[in-house]
Amino acid sequence: MSASLASSSALLDFLRQNYPSAVSPSASEADLPGLSHRLFPNTSYTDNEKVETSQWLTTASRLATPDEDEAKHAERLGSLNIHLSTRTTLLGAKPSVADIALYYRLAPAVKSCSAAERTGEHGYHHIVRFIDFVQNAPLFGLSIKDEDKVEVDLDDIKFVHKPIDAKEEKERKKKEKAAAVAADESQTALPIGKGKGEDGAKLNKKDKVGDAAQNAEDKVKSTVGGEAPQQAKKEKKEKQPKPQKQPPKEAPLSPCLIDLRVGHILKAINHPNADSLYVSTIACGDPPGTDNTFEHEGQVVRTVCSGLNGLVPLEEMQGRKIIAVCNLKPVTMRGIKSAAMVLAASPRLKEGEEDNHKGPVELVTPPADAKAGDRVIFEGWAGEPEGVLNPKKKVWETLQPGFTTTEGLEVGFDIGAVPQLQGDEGAKKPIGKLVTSSGGTCTVKSLSHAVVR
């Protein structure tokens, strides 16, 4: 399936033809994300749905680029096909301008597809169904002539896929997670009295039958000999107290506790409710199913809010590599949950100077060959990061003052700025550069001796 070229102005013309009272003649590409409530005034949208609509508009525009690599295009279509497998529209059931944008971009391509490309084993069944729904559903009310519609033969199905049940899929993931936890627990020895014998071996059926027979024999001997049975019931063994789990050993304070990784910003948009914030979709190398992640264009990504609007141009945020702090506790920023933080440098304030938050600000840039998910550490501070930093322990707040840049514009860690780490040898430790496993150094564009946060 090849992409068709369609500019934003052509999309706006298409919208004006179908919704003349909702789309003004002066509307531009920048107005597209906010058109949903004008096209569908009876539908309300949450903040997250507004952000998701903007993200799908970006995806739609990329599907139409003529220079898109075929493999990447197929990957995007595959991801979209999976997304639509459990949804009627891109948002689930609600209509949005993004549905119409995707229809406009993809309809010509679907029209020229072969039957195998549409409904074959590796075809795009759900995209075809989506296209047919958008062009015909009263929900959208598009005025498209029959000869211009994508003809879909509902009886021409080349391969029948087993439908994906959203509840079953959720239950399957839940069971997988429980199985993994059970596997870990099975490695821990059970205390005596919890399904094992005194020697730690598990009792089998034969052992239990033998014990019952011995008890019966003892009772017979006692009755024949005229002796009263010692006890009608077998004495209960005293329950052994459960061994208390030892609290995990607390790792010593170190910048290695902070999970710093290379991130790839797939796209960034303005926050719908905050002028100072961007909302970015960032791949950080997380495995599928990681908390606070979702799949986008075939990659596992996080949503990240950053206070860089007005400080870093939006175009500089698109498609670039950054350094992300990945184990801070997620926070909701003006209605949108943010699951990481983007590192940036700003000038160090002089004594008595107030921060007016006007910049300049420069993003920390990883080495050119770094990949999304690559971990970066400060030289001399190797170690494993915490899963999620405990906000009460203020690890980030304690260590962040040591994040700085050198005269050579390299990002580093200065132990001299963190009193809690200074011991007999600590103060003599040189600034540790922020590097990848291959030795590449993270840098900034022009700010030396800056604050990095």
Could you explain the architecture of this structure?
- This protein is of the alpha+beta class.
- It is built from eleven helices and 15 strands.
- The chain has helices at 8-18, 36-39, 47-63, 70-84, 97-111, 115-119, 125-136, 166-185, 205-224, 314-317, 395-399; strands at 260-270, 278-283, 294-296, 299-306, 321-325, 331-333, 336-338, 341-342, 344-346, 362-363, 377-378, 403-405, 411-413, 432-435, 451-452.
- The longest helix is centred in the middle third of the chain and has 20 residues, at 166-185.
- It is globular and about 80 Å long.
- The two termini are 44 Å apart.
The topology string of helices and strands comes to HHHHHHHHHEEEEHEEEEEEEHEEEE
Count of β-strands: 15
Give the N-to-C terminal Cα separation: 44 Å
Major β-sheet profile: 6 strands, antiparallel
Structural class: alpha+beta
List the strand order in the largest sheet. 3-4-2-1-5-8
Give the integer mean of the pLDDT values: 82
Strand residues, percent? 5-15%
Low-confidence stretches: 1-6, 187-203, 220-229
Q: Quick summary of this structure?
A:
The protein has 453 residues and is α+β, with helices and mostly antiparallel strands. It is built from eleven helices and 15 strands.
